[in-house]
C-alpha cells in the first residue's frame, strides 16, 4: 500500500474497480470495492494521484477524495478509451484510467462545486419540463383535431385550444375530454417556479450578473455558464472554449489542405443551444431597430443568411463570455456602439 503512487478508479453504482501502480508504473494493486467501502479504503492510503472518468457521480467522488488529501483528476471518457486493451470490462477500464491520468498531454475536467451542480440540476429539470410541455401541447393538438378543432401553429394557437377546453358551454368537446389540459397547466407552473429559482441564483452570483450584460446573454445562459465551467482558465483561449461548446467548423484537413465544414456540434449541446438562441435574439432586435450601430453584424448579415450569421455571432458571444470569466472583467461596449 505504501508504494502506490497512481490509482485508476472505475466508478459505478455499487461495485468499484481499483487499479494501483507505483512510481515506476508497475502494477501493485487490483481490487474490487463495494460502494460502502470506498472511502474507508482511500482513508488508509497515503496521498496519491487518483484518475476518474468524468461521468455520473464523478464530481462527488472527486470532492470526497480531495478532502482526504488525494490529488484527483477527472478525464473525458472518450480520451480514456484509446488506452483500453482488448476486451472492455471494469478491470481493463481501471487500468486504462490509471495509465491515461499520467499522460502529460491529457486533458482534465475541473471538479464542480456543490453549488454549480445544484444550479445545473435546476437547468436540467427545467429543460425536461419544457420537453414534456412540448409533448403535451402536440398531444392536445392531436386529441382536439379528432373532434374537428384545429388551431394555427405557435403559442397563440395553443391558447385558442385551451380556451375551447375551458369553455364548458362549447358542446364540440365532451366533458370527459376536458381533463387533457390539466397536465399542461401543471407543467407551465413548474417551469415558472424553476425560472424563479434560476433568477434567484443568478442574482446571488457576481460572475453571472457580469455575464448578463453581454447582448444575447440573459440569466439562463449566464447561470448555465457559471455552473458548467468550474475553471475558465482551463481553456487556453476563447477559441478553445468556443470549440468545446461546439461552435467552430469541423475540420477534415490533410496534406496541408484545410477543409472546414459545418460546426462540429461537439461538447455541451445545452450551452450551444442557449448561445444560438441569444444570437438569434440579437439579430432579431437589430433587424427591427437597425444594425447601423453594429458594423460587424451589418456586414455579416449582408453576406450570409440569418442562421449562419447567428452561429458566427454565437461563436463571438462565447469568446466574449470566456474572456470576462477568465479575466474577471466587465462587459465593455464596442466603440461604434458607444458612439
If you had to describe this structure to a student in words, what would you say it looks like?
The protein has 339 residues and is of the alpha/beta class. It folds into 3 domains: 6-100, 2-Layer Sandwich (Nucleotidyltransferase, domain 5); 114-203, no CATH class; 219-338, no CATH class. The protein has helices at 38-43, 58-67, 77-80, 90-100, 114-145, 155-166, 182-203, 206-211, 219-228, 238-245, 269-289, 295-303, 306-327, 335-338, and strands at residues 6-10, 15-21, 27-34, 49-53, 71-75, 249-251, 260-263. A 5-stranded mixed β-sheet has the order 3-2-1-4-5. A hairpin with a 5-residue loop joins strand 2 and strand 3. Helix 7 crosses helix 9, helix 9 (219-228) runs antiparallel to helix 11 (269-289) and helix 10 packs across helix 13. It is globular and about 80 Å long. The N and C termini lie far apart (67 Å).
Brief rundown of the structure:
The chain has 339 residues and is an alpha/beta fold. Helix content is 52%, strand content 11%.
* Gross morphology: globular
The tally of structural domains comes to: 3
Q: Going across the biggest sheet, name each strand in turn.
A: 3-2-1-4-5
User: Which radius of gyration do the C-alpha atoms yield?
Assistant: 25 Å
| Largest sheet: number of strands, sense, barrel closure | 5 strands, mixed
Strand fraction equals 5-15%
Helix content: 40-55%
- Uncertain stretches: none
Quaternary structure state of the chains depicted? single chain
| Intertermini distance | 67 Å
Number of discrete helical segments: 14
* Mean pLDDT figure: 90
Instruction: List the secondary-structure elements in sequence, H or E.
Output: EEEHEHEHHHHHHHHEEHHHH
Strand tally is 7
Structural class: alpha/beta
Amino acid at each position: 500500500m505504501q508504494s502506490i503512487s497512481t490509482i485508476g478508479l472505475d466508478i459505478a453504482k455499487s461495485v468499484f474497480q481499483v487499479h494501483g501502480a507505483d512510481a515506476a508504473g508497475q502494477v501493485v494493486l487490483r481490487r474490487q470495492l463495494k460502494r460502502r467501502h470506498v472511502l474507508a479504503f482511500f482513508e488508509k492510503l497515503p496521498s496519491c494521484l487518483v484518475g476518474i472518468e468524468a461521468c455520473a457521480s464523478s464530481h462527488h467522488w472527486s470532492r470526497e477524495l480531495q478532502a482526504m488529501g488525494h490529488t484527483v483528476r477527472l478525464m473525458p471518457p472518450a480520451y480514456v478509451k484509446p488506452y483500453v486493451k482488448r476486451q472492455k470490462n471494469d478491470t481493463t477500464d481501471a487500468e486504462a484510467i490509471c495509465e491515461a491520468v499520467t499522460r502529460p498531454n491529457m486533458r482534465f475536467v475541473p471538479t464542480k462545486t456543490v453549488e454549480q451542480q445544484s444550479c445545473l440540476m435546476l437547468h436540467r429539470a427545467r429543460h425536461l419540463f419544457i420537453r414534456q410541455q412540448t409533448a403535451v401541447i402536440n398531444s392536445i393538438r392531436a386529441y382536439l383535431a379528432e373532434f374537428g378543432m384545429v388551431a394555427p401553429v405557435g403559442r397563440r394557437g395553443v391558447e385558442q385550444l385551451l380556451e375551447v377546453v375551458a369553455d364548458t358551454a362549447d358542446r364540440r368537446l365532451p366533458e370527459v375530454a376536458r381533463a387533457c389540459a390539466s397536465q399542461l397547466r401543471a407543467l407551465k407552473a413548474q417551469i415558472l417556479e424553476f425560472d424563479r429559482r434560476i433568477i434567484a441564483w443568478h442574482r446571488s452570483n457576481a460572475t453571472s450578473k457580469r455575464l448578463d450584460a453581454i447582448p444575447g446573454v440573459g440569466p439562463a445562459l449566464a447561470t448555465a455558464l457559471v455552473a458548467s465551467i468550474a475553471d475558465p482558465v482551463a481553456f487556453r483561449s476563447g477559441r478553445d472554449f468556443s470549440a468545446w461548446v461546439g461552435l467552430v467548423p469541423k475540420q477534415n484537413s490533410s496534406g496541408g489542405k484545410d477543409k472546414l465544414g459545418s460546426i462540429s456540434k461537439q461538447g455541451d449541446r445545452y450551452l450551444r443551444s442557449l448561445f444560438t438562441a441569444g444570437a438569434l435574439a440579437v439579430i432579431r432586435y437589430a433587424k427591427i431597430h437597425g444594425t447601423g450601430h453594429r458594423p460587424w453584424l451589418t456586414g455579416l448579415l449582408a453576406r450570409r443568411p440569418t442562421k449562419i450569421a447567428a452561429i458566427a455571432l454565437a461563436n463571438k458571444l462565447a469568446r466574449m463570455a470566456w474572456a470576462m470569466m477568465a479575466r474577471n472583467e466587465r462587459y465593455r461596449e464596442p466603440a461604434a456602439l458607444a458612439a
